[in-house]
Each structure stands twice: as structure tokens, then as C-alpha cells.
Design goal:
Elements (H helix, E strand, L loop, with lengths): L7 H32 L2 H20 L4 H14 L3 H28 L1 H8 L5 H26 L3 H25 L5 H30 L12 H18 L4 H32 L2 H4 L1 H15 L2 H37 L8 H27 L2 H11 L2 H12 L1 H25 L8 H16 L9 H22 L4 H10 L11
Length: 508
């Protein structure tokens, strides 16, 4: 029976593997986004955005709680060293996830005429077949990227992303280099081929892991057996399904349906950038490391202090790196968007600003969701999700009056309500989160003071806007070095898990 890896040294090894792969895939992903925005006309790009919004909705709706099973119970089985049970759970969950994907993708193919009208997806027969196959392999790839982090195997997770990003980037670049006209069918075919290659790597990597770590030790049921585990997972799944009613994927489709494909393209471009921005924040960037460590520490000790520490650390790290980017976008966001989109999507600037605020609330949402999952409290998540539905009318009315910017304001209302109700639910359950308001106040106060400078500092040219934005970011880092928003324990945690001597550079 092998020792579980959920220690500071295990986290450090996972972070090294993670950063090595993520650094490469980050540049490739951004370059692919820029190329895609240039290769497709705004109307086609808007349809491409709608296609992948449907892909994400499909993945969440057809999982029936298996994602939560991977994130929570795979980790708990590994912590307890119950290796035989762990590997049985790995393979039956992967097989079940794939069977569900095939079944529902077939349903999408057969019933697409009704779905097309509802989601405003106009696909010909060839593109529909390609799209249906894409649904199956996208679901498989995404499930692998949830299973590997639960095992603290971030190297495999990042290589899955790297394979997909590299193949897409090479193919997009070849089209741009040859000067050929890109078609939506060709772009989706490239995405499918890259996703299939990433899935093959994920399958082989999981098979080698299972073969190398399998133990002969028998293991009994965990917490009443598989039925009890799946019951908890299914309750979280219900919250995820309801959450999709007001989620970004549905909102993107609503923009396309009610505001036209051009507005959908603006919204989709800003959404792609904000998603990339969110996914490369430390708390999200290292979510595959933080979440299993979080679940493992709480499973081992049952201490509420663990939840307080992880909440404050995750959210503060995200805010610490998000707020300077918000400052930069306030000063230089419009010329920056105009530059990277070759003049096509400069109009996405006001949408992008609100989306950054949405990301700030999603940081809190993610931390609360980890707490609910660790403690097995799906009822709190469900109550918060039902309350967040109140943002949908705001999105619908806002979209009618202000297009994409009005829709994203509805998303902001939903996130604020979700976090507020979740905080209240935890407090009422007798397990309130001890929020470090002093540390958060330092981060927020510094940001607001620097953002206010946009009203008095002239930046008439793009070059002046860039210079002012970068100067404000540098001042942000300097001021917070003096204010020290992070506690001694948080700095110590960074020093222990950061590779080499990188932790010593964290002086805030």
C-alpha cells in the first residue's frame, strides 16, 4: 500500500510539473485564440462560441455527479490508502462517464432540429455529425482533467492540455501562413482531431498509473458504499444543472439569440479572454493541486480551521493577481483588445470590464464550493444556486436594453447572490467562515485608489494608456509590499510548496 501524496512535498512536485506544462500551454492557448479571432469572420466566430457553449453545457448536464465523485471521493480513497477500491472507482467512473456521453451525444444528433431552434445553432448535416462526435471526445478529455488532479498527477493533466493546445495552434498557424480562407467546419475538425489526440494520451497515462500503483489489498465500502457516495454527488449535480440556467454558457447563447451574432462575437471574445484570465489566476491555476490538498486535509483532521485557512488563502491569492489586471484594463483595455483582435473586437471593452468583476466573485464562489464539497453540504450549494437564479431576469432585460454588457451584469448579480447565500448558509449551519476582512480590505482599497486615477491621469494615445497601466500595476505591487495583506502562515505555506527558492520572492 503506497503512501498518499497529499503533503507539502507532494504538492511541490505537482506544482513543478504543473507550471512546466502550463507555461507552454498558456502561450499556445492565447496564440490560438488570437489566430481564431482573425481567421473567422465575427458571425462565424459567434457561431463557434455558441458551439463550445453547448459543449460545456453538455458536459455538465450529462455527468450526473461523476465530476464531484472524481474530485471528492477519488481523493478520499487515495488518502486512506485503499488502492484496490481506488482503481475500481477510477475505471468504472471513466467507463460510466463515456457511456453517458455517447448516449446523450446520439440524442443530440437525433433531436438536433429542436435543439437548433432553442439554441440558435444552424449547422448543416456534415457539421452536425462532426459536432456530435466532438461532444463525446470533449467529455472524455474533460473528465481525464478532473481525475488526474484528484490523484495529484498535475503533470498528466497539463500534458493533456498541452497536446490539445499545440495541435490546434499548429493547424491554425498553417492556415494563416498559407493565407487560405478558414471555414467553421475546418476549424471544428481541427479541434476534434486535437481533442482525440489529448484523450488518447489521457487514457494511456491512466492505464500506466493504474498498472503501476494497483495493490492487492481488499477494501470495503466508503461511507456506506457507492450508493451513499453517488447520492451526495447527485445532489451537487442538481445544483450544477440549475446553475447552468443562469451560467455563462447559456448567457452566451442568449446574447446570440436576442442580440445577434455580432454581439455574440463580442461577448464570446470577452468571455474567452476572461475565462483565460480566471484560469491563470493562482487559485484557479493551481486548483488541481489546491482542491485535493483541501479535501485531504479536511478528511484527515475534520478541523474547521482548515476550511478558514484555505478559503482566505485561495481567495486572497486570486484577488492579489486579478486586481492589477483589472487596473491595467481600466487604463488600457480598449487599445489592448483592439490590438490582439486586429481591430475586430475593440467594442468588447465594456463587456470585458464587467466580466473581470464577475471573475472576482467567481473566485469567492469557487472557494465556497470547495468548502461545501469537502464537508458534504450539497444543500447549501443548492440554496445558493436557487437564489442566484434571480440574476437571470436582470440578464434578459439588460440584454434587451444594452446587449452583451447588460447580459454580463446579470451574471454579476447571480454570482453576488450565490456567494451571499452560501456565506449565510454556512453561518447558520454553525460553521461560519472566519474571513480575513483586514487583508481583503488592503487589497481592495489599494485597487480602488489606483483605479480612481483614470479620471485624472491623461492617456490620450494607446502608448500612453499602456505606460500608465503598467505603472499603476507596479505601484500596486509596491504599496501592497508595504501593507502586507497576507498573514505569516500564508507566506509560510507559499514558501513550503513553491519550487526551489521561488517562495522567497513572495514578499506580500
Amino acid at each position: 500500500m503506497s503512501a498518499h501524496p497529499y503533503t507539502a512535498s507532494g504538492a511541490r512536485r505537482s506544482i513543478v510539473a504543473f507550471l512546466t506544462g502550463k507555461a507552454a500551454s498558456a502561450g499556445l492557448t492565447f496564440a490560438a485564440l488570437v489566430l481564431l479571432a482573425r481567421l473567422l469572420e465575427p458571425a462565424e466566430y459567434g457561431l463557434y462560441v455558441a458551439i463550445f457553449a453547448f459543449v460545456e453545457i453538455f458536459y455538465l448536464y450529462t455527468g450526473f455527479g461523476l465530476s464531484t465523485f472524481a474530485q471528492k471521493y477519488i481523493t478520499e480513497l487515495r488518502v486512506q490508502g485503499r488502492i484496490a477500491a481506488l482503481h475500481r472507482a477510477l475505471w468504472w467512473s471513466c467507463v460510466a462517464r463515456q457511456l453517458l456521453s455517447v448516449l446523450f451525444a446520439l440524442g443530440v444528433f437525433l433531436a438536433f432540429d429542436h435543439l437548433a431552434e432553442a439554441f440558435d445553432l444552424k449547422l448543416d448535416a456534415d457539421l452536425l455529425l462532426l459536432f456530435s462526435v466532438l461532444l463525446v471526445f470533449e467529455a472524455a478529455m474533460r473528465f481525464f482533467t478532473e481525475v488526474f488532479p484528484a490523484l495529484l498527477l498535475q503533470g498528466h493533466t497539463q500534458f493533456v492540455f498541452l497536446v490539445r493546445s499545440a495541435l490546434r495552434m499548429v493547424a491554425y498557424g498553417a492556415i494563416a501562413w498559407d493565407g487560405d480562407a478558414a471555414t467553421l467546419y475546418g476549424i471544428v475538425a481541427i479541434d476534434l482531431a486535437a481533442t482525440v489526440a489529448a484523450c488518447l494520451y489521457g487514457l494511456v497515462a491512466l492505464a500506466f498509473y493504474s498498472r503501476g500503483e494497483r495493490a492487492a489489498a481488499a477494501s470495503g465500502p466508503l461511507r456506506g458504499g457507492r450508493r451513499a457516495m453517488l447520492s451526495v454527488c447527485f445532489q451537487f449535480y442538481i445544483s450544477q444543472v440549475i446553475g447552468q440556467i443562469y451560467g455563462n454558457n447559456v448567457l452566451r447563447i442568449l446574447v446570440s439569440k436576442f442580440s445577434g451574432l455580432i454581439q455574440a462575437a463580442y461577448y464570446g471574445f470577452a468571455q474567452a479572454l476572461s475565462d483565460m484570465l480566471r484560469n491563470y489566476l493562482p487559485g484557479y491555476l493551481l486548483l488541481g493541486v489546491i482542491r485535493p490538498m483541501f479535501v485531504a486535509r479536511y478528511a484527515a483532521s475534520g478541523s474547521r480551521q482548515v476550511l478558514d485557512e484555505m478559503f482566505n488563502f485561495v481567495v486572497k491569492m486570486n484577488y492579489f493577481t486579478l486586481f492589477p489586471l483589472l487596473i491595467f484594463f481600466v487604463y488600457a483595455g480598449e487599445p489592448f483588445l483592439d490590438l490582439i483582435s486586429h481591430g475586430k473586437y475593440g467594442g468588447a471593452y465594456p463587456i470585458m470590464l464587467v466580466m473581470i468583476l464577475v471573475v472576482s466573485m467567481q473566485c469567492v464562489h469557487t472557494a465556497f464550493a470547495m468548502i461545501n464539497m469537502s464537508t458534504g453540504s450539497p444543500n447549501i450549494s443548492l440554496a445558493a444556486t436557487l437564489a442566484a437564479l434571480s440574476g437571470l431576469p436582470v440578464a434578459l432585460l439588460g440584454g434587451h436594453w444594452y446587449g452583451g454588457q447588460g447580459v454580463v451584469c446579470g451574471a454579476l448579480v447571480s454570482e453576488v447572490l450565490w456567494c451571499a447565500v452560501c456565506w449565510y448558509g454556512l453561518k447558520r449551519s454553525g460553521a461560519p467562515i472566519a474571513i480575513d476582512f483586514r487583508g481583503f480590505g488592503k487589497l481592495l482599497g489599494t485597487t480602488l485608489a489606483l483605479v480612481a486615477g483614470v479620471f485624472v491621469i491623461p492617456h490620450a494615445t494607446p502608448l500612453a494608456a499602456y505606460a500608465t497601466g503598467f505603472a499603476a500595476m507596479a505601484l500596486y505591487a509596491l504599496v501592497l509590499h508595504w501593507l502586507r495583506p497576507f498573514s505569516d502562515n500564508e507566506r509560510d505555506w507559499v514558501n513550503r510548496v513553491a519550487p526551489g527558492r521561488l517562495g522567497r520572492l513572495f514578499v506580500w
